[in-house]
Each structure stands twice: as C-alpha cells, then as structure tokens.
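hiii, so i know i said id send this last week but things got crazy w the move. better late than never?? heres the sequnce for the chain we talked about at the cafe, plus the structure i predicted for it. fair warning i was half asleep when i ran it
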Amino acid sequence: MEETKNVYTLADAAEIVYLSRENVRFSKKSDFISAEICKKGEDGAEIWESHERVWLHRAFPFNMPEKFISVQNKDSEELGLIKDIANLSEEDQRIVREELSRKYYVPRIERILTLKETRGFSFWKVITDAGELSFTLQDTYRSITRVSGDRAFIFDICGNRYEIESISALDKNSYRKIELYL
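okay and structure toks below
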C-alpha cells in the first residue's frame, strides 16, 4: 500500500488571503465577532466558510491603525488579512473599527502628577482622557517607546498601554518628570 504525502512549499505557507467587501462579511453576536469568508474551491467555485468567533489583530498598531488587520480563528490561525478597512462594506467597517477600538483602547496621558522610582520600579500617577490613573513600570527606560519624534507609548507591568500624543505639549512639570527617560 503506497502512502501519499502532502508536500507544501514556502509559497503555499506564505499565501495570504486578502479580505474585502467581495469575500468577507462580519457580524456581531453579543460581544463576539463572527465572519463568513468566501474562498475558491479546487474547481473554482465559491465556498463560504462560517467562523463563529474571530479575533482581529493589527499588524502595525502605531503607524497604520486601519491597514493590515489580521483576522484569526480560535486557534490563532490566520483566515485572512484586511489590507485596508476602507475596502469593507460600511457595516463591516463599523464592526471592525468598534472591535479594534475596544481591543486597542489606550488612555492618552495629559499630565504626569507624580513619578517615583524605587528598586527598578517606577510608580506613576497621571491624568488621562479617562481620568486619573496610577500604574507601575518595571525597567522604565524599556517601558517607554518613542514612536515618532514627539509621540510615545508606555507599557506597564500588567501589559496596559498608555499614549503621550505629544511630548512637547506636556506642561513643564510633566515634561521634567519624564525627560530623564526619553
């Protein structure tokens, strides 16, 4: 009995399915997003696959928030890639934007009230667009990422993100507190 083996090439592994209004439909069921994705069968016929729950991940969350959105199933397998949210239907755009906004919510720091460092940790109390917040950083220098000349993101020990939209727009006292770490 002869055994047949499937042989895959690098080109097969790198095949990307781009999703647009022609081949994807999203829906929201309670707090979860579902998707129907159209793929071509071996005979060229359209086959619509239903995915009860999908996750959206930005490939470039800082620079291109509405481009290159990975759509993955529950096993973290990529089902397709949205090149640009604008290529989706209006309803799908609304669903995707709402989900990305929820997932990637980042409070914007408007003012730094206190910043104290002890034993490799820094303790922050800030005013954000969401109100007053406190958080802790470990290795402060590595926890602050400058995205552009004037914009920075801060990652706390719990994995939360905070944004300083414009470092130069901070008040003088706030700037003095963070200046050492920039």
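btw Residues 90-103 form the longest helix (14 residues). thought thatd interest u
miss u guys!!
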